[in-house]
Amino acid sequence: MLNDDELLRYSRHLLLEDVGETGQQALKNAKVLIIGMGGLGSPASLYLAAAGVGHIVLNDFDHIEVSNLQRQISYQSDDIGEAKVEVAKRKLQQINPEIKVRSINKTMPEMQLTMELTMADLVLDCTDNMASRQLINKACVDAKVPLIVGAAIRFEGQLMFFDHSETDSPCYHCLFPSSEEQTLNCSNSGIIGPVVGTIGTLQALEAIKYFFGLPSGIKNKLKLFDGKSLDWQTFTVNKDPKCTVCGQH
Amino acid sequence: MKIHVNEQTLELAENSNIEQLLIYLDKPLMGSAIAVNQEIISRSHWADTILNEGDNISLFQAIAGG
Predict the structure, then answer these.
(1) Of B33, B43, B63, which has the smallest distance from its Cβ to A184's Cβ?
(2) For tag attachment on chain B, is the N or C end more exposed, with fewer CB atoms within 10 Å?
(3) Is residue A244 part of a domain?
């Protein structure tokens, strides 16, 4: 049941036919793990907290640097040197004291990630490197936890959603099978704040819709965003029967 | 036959497969993802996916930034 404060706080959700009190209660019960608290994780976590996702776990090993502030909108100049997850946690609790936020200030070893996944309904991959992305994908496939992946570089964004609770779901590895490959990241290629912000915001939107029980526009799809033309391209991702991560399941 | 790669038209030998296209374009096999008519073709099917006249090919790289 929602209390009086919550009824008021979420009144603009409650007005929506697709949401109502049932939808808001589903958000309140939801447990989301956000891995990576940079340019994607900042807006994603702010929106999930504001929306009333009841349990949010923030994971990042990193500290705030001045070069982060151009796009990582959870942080301000006073925060330089502090742990991202601690500052973000404080901010989320200020936005919404009704929710629970937990922080993990390190790179999780595989065993800890597996343990965290037993407590998560959904994961947002907001990381900035291929090795983490492959590790998170594999852990989510194994634990059968749905995964919303965002990535951005320069003026480009990528967005996808794999519901690993379904056995025939494709996975990130079906699409990008190598962790060795030369991939682009923000520190070697540059990034525009609103581009990474757009992708992080859409990760939050898809997460909220998932808990409301609304169909996703990106399930088993890859969306490419062009921040110059504002064009989107949509591709279908099929399960690769030979995928070394999800193929044998 | 004519195909379209990232919205540019190019002439390719009949019965070419995706792997041959990437070699022809001199693109690295490792870092790329490829879609034929908006459908991603997984790497294990690159050699046995034959391209057809008029196919729309999208070729792009994984990005990891965030």
Answers:
(1) B63
(2) N
(3) no
Write down the CATH number for the domain with range B2-61. Answer: 3.10.20.30
When divided into structural domains, chain A yields a total of 1
pTM of the model: 0.95
Q: Is the ipTM, as predicted for this complex, more than 0.95?
A: no
Interface residue of A73, A149, A154, A181 to substitute, partner B, most B CBs within 10 Å:
A181
CB interface of B with A, residues 4-23, below 8 Å: none
CA A35 to chain centre: 7
Give pLDDT tens digits for A106-132: 999 999 999 999 999 999 999 999 999
pLDDT digits (tens, 9 = 90+) for B5-64: 998 999 999 999 999 999 888 877 777 899 999 999 998 899 999 999 999 999 988 888
Q: Dig out the tokens for A179 from the structure.
A: 């962790």
Nearest CA in chain B to A196: B66
Q: How close, in Å, is residue A128 to chain B by CA atoms?
A: 4
Position A245 in a domain? no
Cβ <8 Å between B31 and A151: no
Q: Are strands B39-40 and A221-226 parallel, antiparallel or unpaired?
A: unpaired
Q: What is the pLDDT of residue B32?
A: 81
